[in-house]
Amino acid sequence: MNDYLVSLPILLPLIGSVGALLLRKRRRLQASWAMAAMFGGLAASVWLLAVVWSGGEPVVFHSGGWLAPFGISLVGDLLSAMMAVMSQVVLSLGIVYALGSRDQVVRYPAFYTIFLTMAAGLTGAMLAGDLFNLFVFAELLVFSGTILTAASDDRMGAEAAFKYFYMSLLASAFLLLAIGSLYVSYGTLSMAGLAMRIAANPSAPLLPVAIGLLMATFMIKSAVTPFHFWQPDFHTASPTAVSAMLSSVVVKLGVYGFLRMTTLLFVEQAPAVRGLLLVLGLAGIVYGGLGAIGTHNAKRMLAYSTLAQVGFILAAIGWGSRLALAAALVFAVNHSLIKAALLMLAGAVASRAPVKTAAFDVVTGLGKYMPFAGLLFFVGGLALMGIPPTNGFVSKMMLFSSGIEAGQFAMLAALGLASILTLVYVVRAFQRIWWQLPAEGVKAKPGGDRLLAPALLIVAVLVLGLWPEPLVGLAEATADWLGDPKAYIAAVLGG
Fold it and tell me: Cα 226 to chain center, whole Å?
């Protein structure tokens, strides 16, 4: 039974997407069905994580009974199961937000179908045991995100969608070329099979090419500088229920890819990859922080902030120690919750603006009509800055501890500067929206997006700040698994 369990987090959202399409003329029933499917996928992901953590070995499903490296395998180890739970927690609350959103796209008959397809694509990419099916699931994610953004009622939605689509096509081309190079060199696309064969023959002529192409692929997926330029426009123009997902969990697909590269596929070549990740992380931290300060739109500010926060994660992966990898995982989970909440709150403010936008010159002072949203944003801002008692403090403490352990004091100084930049742009946003008075004659629209989803996320932010031990313990256990990939390889290939 357990081997089928790894397929449920993918199958339930996919089944839900088909059902939502069939129920497109019955809107309330369609929304209820979509929510049930998404929460069902979340429950399956949590179940999978519990089984893997307690059992001490990966759960593997071989499609059609064909064993790797010849068949399609889904693999649930601690890393993929943890990332699946993280993603589906946020995606489930994205559905909750969509139910109370005033974005026009939410009322389209196909919205829930496409949203659930996006969820299946993201989860499938993290559970795929081979590179080709990672590619297939990632394409589901791309097409879904593109359609939902193009359908946005923001006038820049179509332009942002095309920019994202063309950058994703570039990433897809890189990934396909990497897949071809690895298959020609090693005769398999199974990640377990590749790990074993690359370790046995690390001098294949096309191996450096494949590594470079995979690096470029995951840099685009995570909007890592200099492949970031699509991200601010995309997240600003996307419907909030979509942008909150894209900026919090979808960008983590690239993080997942970097972790697989450095701990499974290219262990011998990992030091060089990690060195590059350190450089990219530092660039993202500086550029993202400065970009967030320089922008004049709350959603765009948070999009630039994601560049900086992903930079922190890349720095930890670059250090590569057990503590650093655990810090990267804790940071990734906590950032997903924080960023989703803040983007939802920015979207809620925009929904009350006279003209629907999160631009500061329009939403200035509107916070006086939304005091509860202000309280939530304040706590989320504290978390983004890394101030106790929030989960962001736990993330920063683990990150700095791992940096001290690695002796990366110059890098830590840069990280400290980045934290100051975070303080500047978070305080500025709060001051513009909740401290200042609105311009004369400007009034908020009645109603607006509901705050249930961001409120639940902020509760999670506080709970994980006050009681971080379960998440930290899981991250440390996952780091131990990543440090010894033999169990993953044996579970997939047998023996």
Answer: 18
